[in-house]
Amino acid sequence: MDLRSAAAVLLAASCAAPLAAQVRTSQPPIINIFREFEKPGHAGVHEATEVRWTALNRQHNYPYTYVALTAVSGPSEVWWVTAYDGLGAFGKGSTWGGDNAAYQAALSKLSVEDGEHLNNTSAMQAVAVPDASYGAYPDLSKMRVFEVTTFQVRLGSEAAFTTMAKQYAAVMKAGNVATSWRSYQVIAGAPAGTFLVFSSYPSWDAVEAERKAADQAMAAMAAAEGEAFGKAYREAVVSSNSRYFNVNPRNSLVPKEYGSDPFWAVKP
Q1: In the chain, at which end, N or C, are there fewer CB atoms within 10 A of the end residue's CB?
Q2: Residues 87 and 187 occupy one common structural domain
Q3: How far apart are CA 61 and CA 11, in angstroms?
Q4: 137, 30, 23: which is closest to 93 by C-alpha?
């Protein structure tokens, strides 16, 4: 069993054999992100293959839930995000099903077919940074859009990243901006100093509304405090890159508690 099958985060759908997975109400300690980079023009057939992959996991009572995120900015790819309580749980997930011959045979066949639609794959694991996170943990069953910002900080500036996150949170609070995010530090699969910040939204209108409110709050802060924040940011951060993703319910495997929402109902 490879990491592709151990991929992903949180959520729920009605299934023939519903999962008994935990519905999370707080930031997961560890997440695994499996990325598949699609060949041009293969998005539709790739999704169809992944629908069968998820159906296979459902049929065999795969014990971990995951959400599929389809990129709408940056490279054409899909992220599968899975939440774990620790590296021990992640390790169990990475080898789950190894003694099930029927499952492994079906999985191997699907893996070959899936590979025909891909240019590459990649996996990384990241640990939660609660001090660099902000706001109430969202009801992920209602989220439809994710924003993921990747920060590459200079070595030795990890503490500065947390400080800046707290400062930014203070600006959002002072500006009455309704927002929240979860920060993670990558521990494997990406260069040292890589941080991922996840924000989630119930709609694209909510994305736009928060963006406008955040821009206004930051402009007010800059006018009042000058360049101090910007200077600290430039000294600590090498680069940043924000991307948007649509949640794909057909390629997600989610807890049974969310099955009452038609969005998560299994679709052909």
Answers
A1: C
A2: no
A3: 16
A4: 30
Q: From residue 253, how far is each of 28, 100, 109, 178, 217 by CA, in Å? A: 17, 20, 20, 29, 37
Q: Flag whether 137 is in a domain.
A: yes
Domain count, the chain: 2
In terms of domains, do 56 and 143 share one? no
* Of 262, 247, 250, 245, the residue nearest 44 (C-alpha): 250
pLDDT digits (tens, 9 = 90+) for 111-149: 999 999 999 999 999 999 999 999 999 999 999 999 999
Task: In whole angstroms, give the CA distance from residue 193 to residue 153.
Answer: 5
Token representation of residue 128? 């939660």
**What is the rounded (10 degree) CA torsion for 24, 28, 29, 35?**
140
Contact 89, 83 (CB under 8 A): no
Question: Does pTM top 0.85 for this prediction?
Answer: yes
109 & 175 share domain: no
What would the two tokens of residue 208 be? 């736009």
In sequence order, what E strands does the chain have? Answer: 30-38, 66-71, 77-84, 118-128, 145-153, 182-188, 194-201, 237-253
What H or E segment, with its residue span, contains residue 32? strand 30-38
**Domain identity same for 105 and 162:** no
Q: How many CB atoms lie within 10 A of CB 167?
A: 16
Extract the tokens encoding 249.
Answer: 């319910």
Pair 103, 81 in one domain: yes
- Say whether both 166 and 135 belong to one domain: yes
